C-alpha cells in the first residue's frame, strides 16, 4: 500500500484511477503534457511531460515502484528499460508492443487460435488499392491504422468504390466486414499471482459515423451460454498475454451466433465506466488492486446499468457548455461524470453518465431522456 505508483497518461481514465486510489490512500503520480489534462485537476503529483518521449517517461518512472498506463500510445522502449531496472511495469512492455499494434494483435489471435475476422496487412494506400484492383481484396471491408487510432479515429469503412477515395495512407489493417448481431465487451482483472476476475458482460451500441460507443448496458441480452463462452475467451487471452491489471476484450456476436474477438485494451476502458456506481468494485479500483498484488474485488452488479458517453455535438467547437444537465440531475439514479475538458469539438469524449434502475428497461428509458436532453455545446 505504500508503493509509489506512476501512471503514464493524464486523461479521464487517469483521473478516475486517481479518484479510486484516493479511497485507499495510495501514493499516485501521473504524467502527461500539461495541466489542462483531466487528471491534473485532482492529482497532487501531476508531472508535465511527453508520454511518447523516451527521456520523459524514463525520468518519470525512476522513483516509482509500480508503473502503469491509461493509454497505449506511450514510449514502450522507456518502459522496457524501467522494467530491466527492477520496476514493476504493468501491462508488461512485451504485451503492450503486441496490443498497441492492431496488426500484431490480429496475428496474435490467429497464431493463438482465438476466433477473429479474416484480415490482411498493407503498407500503404497504394498497396491497398492495388490489392482491390488485382481482385485480392473484395469490397466491402474495414481499414484501421495499425497504431495511434483511438475513439473511432483511424477507422475507415469501405462499402463501395466511392469510399476508396478516402482510404488512409500508411501501414494499415484490413478486415472483412462481419455480419454483426451485437457488440459486447468483457473486462478481465488479473494480479501477479494469476488470480482472475471478470466483470459482467456489457452490450455496446456505436455511433454510426464516429465509430465510437454512444452507450452500453449491463446485463447484456445475449444468452447465458454465450456469456460463459465470452468470459472464457477473455480470460484465456489475458493469461496468454500475461496481463497484470485489466484487459478489456471487445467481441462481435455474429448473426450466426458465433463470437469473434475484435480488439483488446490493457487498461481501464470505456466499457467499464458504469462499474463505478453499478458494481461492488469499480474497474478503476480493480486495476489498482491488481497491479499492487492485492486481493481482487467483487465484480457483482448492484443493479442494471446504462452508460451514455457525452460527446461533443456536431457543429460546436470552443469553450464547453453542458446544456440540460440540471434536468438530468433531477432524476433518481442518474450519475454524470464530467471530465473537466475545457474545450469541446465534434464527437470528443467530454464525459459520461451512468444510469441505474431496478430493471434494464427502466434504465434504458432514463438513458434515452439523458441522450435527448444533455447536450455538449459551446
Summarize the structure.
This protein is α+β, with helices and mostly antiparallel strands and 378 residues long. The protein has eleven helices and 22 strands. 28% of the residues lie in helices and 29% in strands.
Structure description:
With 378 residues, the chain is an alpha+beta fold. The chain has three domains: 4-89, Rossmann fold (3-Layer(aba) Sandwich), CATH 3.40.50; 118-176, ATP-grasp fold, A domain (Dna Ligase, domain 1, 2-Layer Sandwich), CATH 3.30.1490.20; 180-377, ATP-grasp fold, B domain (D-amino Acid Aminotransferase, Chain A, domain 1), CATH 3.30.470.20. It is built from eleven helices and 22 strands. The strands form five sheets. Strands 10, 11, 12, 13, 14, 15, 16, 19 and 21 form a nine-stranded antiparallel sheet that branches. Strands 3-2-1-4-5 form a five-stranded parallel sheet, sandwiched between helices. Strands 6-9-7-8 form a four-stranded antiparallel sheet. The radius of gyration is 20 Å and the shape is globular.
Reading off the top of the CATH hierarchy, the class of the largest domain is best stated as Alpha Beta
What sort of overall outline do the alpha carbons produce when their principal axes are compared? globular
The parts where pLDDT drops under 50 for at least 5 residues are none
Main sheet specs = 9 strands, antiparallel
Structural class: alpha+beta
What's the count of strands? 22
Write down the CATH topology of the largest domain.
Answer: D-amino Acid Aminotransferase, Chain A, domain 1
So, the CATH homologous superfamily of the largest domain?
A: ATP-grasp fold, B domain
- Integer-rounded radius of gyration: 20 Å
Gap from first CA to last CA = 42 Å
How many helical stretches? Answer: 11
User: What fraction strand?
Assistant: 25-35%
CATH architecture of the largest domain: 2-Layer Sandwich
Give the total of domains.
Answer: 3
Mean pLDDT: 96
Helix content: 25-40%
